[in-house]
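As a warm-up, study this chain.
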Amino acid sequence: MNILIINSGSSSVKYQLIETNTETVIAKGLAERIGIEGSNLKHQPKAKDNISIVRPLKDHTEAIALILECLTDPSHGVLADLSGIHAVGHRVVHAGESFSGSVLINDDVLQALRDNISLAPLHNPANIMGIEACQANMPNVPMVGVFDTAFHQTMPPHAFMYAIPYDYYKRLKVRRYGFHGTSHKYVGQRMAQIMGKPMENLKIITCHLGNGGSIAAIKEGKSIDTSMGMTPLEGVMMGTRSGDMDAAIIEYIMEHDQVSIDDVMNTLNKKSGLQGVSCTSSDMRDITGAAAAGNAQAQLALEMFTYRIRKYIGAYAAVMGGVDAIVFTAGIGENVAIVRSMVMKDFEWLGIHLDEEENKVRADEHRISTPDSRVEVWVVATNEELAIAREALAFVK
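Now compare it with the structure written out below.
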């Protein structure tokens, strides 16, 4: 059975076609600059040459149509026709409190996504456009929505509520939602499989560290807390996002620099984090390279980044009453050994002993703690597309 995974951005569509019996990616690609001059598609079919097509794509419907054209093309396609696509799984960023799991998309679901646009104004409109474009091109194929926020809907009120007037929650749904839920769920489940234990018997801390990053506390198979909040701005320091900070700083900057709230929020989202502190880059590869060369600002950014992750791990070990495994995943978590080493520094009190030599090994799934470490520490590559395909497959079956 073949599941098409769609991840729609405001001007792009990423896709993978996954054969679910073997869980093999048989084609993937990216349509970008949709609605902008220079729009193009990069298509990578399995066992065939990659191709690049430059063509005007005025909207997501045209982009999806080109993707389907590539998938069924006689020379560089992988399907005889569109009947070979049995379902489409859509990554959707924000479902608010509407859904606690994946859903088969219908008119009511689309309306719920529209109702939650105010919670994710940059993401939900693009996700909706991707869904509607697929419906237009494949009207009889089941569409499944898989939400970044759904896994965290198991958080108890004392974890997701903010200490502000309760009326804001009742009227405006101001609360912690959390993100990267598909990734946290996938690596948590995979960690349980690796350990050979039911997820319901484990306490796991998952560290999704990429340009955006979040930490999750998973107890008995459920997310009970996570670092991102109502938006992805809260939590650990990230590539360009500030993470946790005193809310009064916003007013202070506005008054002293005579700038608007939009200006300050743009700075906190796009000019802060690693980039803002290092004055060098938002890319961890650049940061570690500059720090190794003696750049004091880059070293400070690296120390702040790892220190804040360490604080969350300690806090989540406390609220879960212990921890059985800590998992690093995503671009930085999977690939940057110095970050993992600095994060796990001084955790001997928790019974953690990092094997520095094993930590240097590059592998998709690899234990980096010593055999006598009371808490297992692992690197596990995330695979959100496969997780979405599995969710969609369950609905098709």
